[in-house]
Design a protein that fits this description.
Layout lengths: L1 H25 L2 H18 L1 H33 L6 H47 L2 H4 L4 H43 L1 H48 L1 H7 L2 H24 L1
Helix pairs in contact: 2-6, 3-4, 3-6, 4-6, 6-7, 7-9
């Protein structure tokens, strides 16, 4: 009876997953994700050498970090007397890895900054050119402050995705495989526990990412409203002073600040 019930539960679980996948296909979620990835991939291909450099730096830093953990383990084993070995050589190897890690992180940070600003300027120039060449009727539905916020904030987000998405993904795989191999060599039971916990982490991160996207969209919308309000008020500053409505605009400013503060703290608490 128990195996039959377990088989039934597994089939029901499989049916639930199939229904979820079918619903995602029908509501266009997968298609939207695919279109976003294709759009991002055009920029990744354009700056492929930049991305490759980023990947190599990330992999090198990850490998050095894994080697440092092994070196630290050997030093601790020698100091505690768990294993015998040359303490001087182990310390020198560990120190060399630590110094190399500092140099690598500094170089990676500098190169990442140069790469990110280059990609950001390129995308920003392209978006700005398209805004200039778009017919004015299509731009009428957007406030100027909203366009400024998109040109700066959203472009920066896209540039970070171009330079960080693929490198982060590959570096994460290298780090996972390297850590898994080290754990298998030292304690297979611990590696098994980590693998068992991986699906739980994936399922929980799926829900977290969805909420993060909602919060991110909300913060961008509020940021655009604040930017538009600032731009409109400064552009019409003489009119505001002429009609003596400074207090009204000040009160509106406080209301928008409170809305932004509430949304930001909610995001931070999440």
């Amino acid at each position: 009876m128990r195996p039959l019930r377990q088989l039934f539960d597994n089939n029901r679980c499989g049916m639930d997953i199939s229904k979820k996948i079918k619903s995602k296909i029908e509501d266009g979620s997968f298609r939207e994700m695919w279109l976003e990835f294709k759009w991002l991939w055009t920029y990744i291909r354009r700056y492929r050498w930049v991305v490759i450099i980023h990947i190599l730096l990330g992999v090198a830093a990850t490998v050095m970090s894994l080697l440092s953990s092994l070196a630290m383990r050997d030093v601790i084993d020698i100091v505690t007397g768990f294993e015998s070995g040359k303490i001087i050589g182990s310390f020198i190897f560990l120190a060399a890895l630590m110094v190399g890690s500092v140099v690598m992180n500094a170089a990676a940070s500098r190169i990442a900054a140069v790469i990110n600003i280059r990609v950001q300027n390129g995308i920003q120039a392209e978006v700005y050119d398209r805004m200039l060449r778009t017919d004015w009727q299509s731009l009428e539905q957007f406030r100027s402050g909203d366009l400024i916020n998109r040109l700066n904030g959203d472009v920066n987000t896209v540039a970070s995705g171009v330079t960080g998405f693929l490198p982060g993904f590959i570096t994460g795989i290298v780090q996972f495989l390297g850590a898994l191999i080290i754990m298998l060599c030292n304690d297979p039971i611990m590696a098994l526990i980590a693998l068992i916990g991986a699906p739980v982490y994936v399922m929980s991160s799926r829900a977290l990412i969805k909420r993060m996207r909602e919060y991110s969209s909300k913060m961008k919308e509020i940021g655009s409203q604040v930017m538009s309000f600032h731009e409109d008020s400064f552009r019409n500053l003489s009119t505001i002073k002429s009609f003596g409505v400074m207090d009204g605009f000040r009160d509106r400013m406080h209301v928008m600040q409170e809305t932004y503060r509430t949304a930001m703290l909610d995001y931070n608490r999440f």
